[in-house]
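(Structure overview)
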Amino acid sequence: MKILQELEQRYPALKTCMPEITQAASALVSCFWQDGKLLACGNGGSAADCEHIVGELMKAFRLHRRLDTDKQRQIRETYPEQADVMIANLQRAVPAISLVSQTALMTAFGNDVSAQMLFAQQVLSYGRPGDYLLAISTSGNSENILHAARLAHIQGVRVIALTGSDGGKLKALSDIAICVPADITYQIQELHLPVYHCLCACVENELFGED
């Protein structure tokens, strides 16, 4: 795929993990074609990355995502007076949930129950067989991320890890581990961004096609 080739050309350092990036792109495309969804979790800068990823998937990223003709027809038949503005502004989305976004739940659960289990609790609730969990941890050893990955397997949810060169404990808990070739936190994060932008672009391209 051209998008993957361009990633390797622009970021030669990622050559070592291109097989895993390619595998993750294919897995996510299959997941979404089969009506699965993506759950994403991380801490700190990785939490911000989760929000970023979901933003790219839930709205147009690189391509126009006009509603399909059946959905347009349903809108026109049900709400004829509002149809034009709805059709003009709604876009086809890729179902994704950032597990870092639930502020009330996270603060309540972290305070009342266990901060280490706050992502696992959401995987328990949202996760269904065929879904994917994108677990982002620069060290690969964040305990709340590890627990989320453990719950994912119980729920029949596959795990894609995005981590550093070592992979940490998360690597063994992942179906696909993208271990970027860096060991310092901010440098790992700098390489995570082009990786997940590439994954989002691959998904969008396969689901919605080139304009």
